[in-house]
Protein: Ribosomal protein S18 acetylase RimI
Amino acid sequence: MQSPAIRPAGSADADQLFGLATQLATSAVPQRQAFQRSLEQILSDPERHLLVAADGDQLQGYLYGMVHPAFHANGPIGWVEELIVDETIRGAGIGRQLVVAYEHWAFAEHDARHISLATRRAGDFYRAIGYEESAVYFKRRRPAD
Structure:
């Protein structure tokens, strides 16, 4: 398999990004209109970064991350919100390539002090590329109206 090109996402990637997003979600079903609104916000915000791995016109995965200031870190920190590689080609190093590209953006271009993330299913992957467990993740759902 040829190594994919890692590049920033664009609005023309929307259909394939949505398809990949449906592979990521396990506790929610992505809705296309909500996805499109989020995509527009992400693409217009310089503190957010949406990278894709592309083999020609075919997207193989994406990483959505951001940087934000944090008092405890004495500066900005990076946060990986979503990372997905098409389920048919996992294990080929594409996730690692996306993380490396995001790390460069966060560390070199935005002076992030560290990068954090939460994961339910990919702990072994992140440990294998040098990440360590450091916290427990909690979540509270919005109450029904």
Q: What stands out?
A: The mean pLDDT is 94.
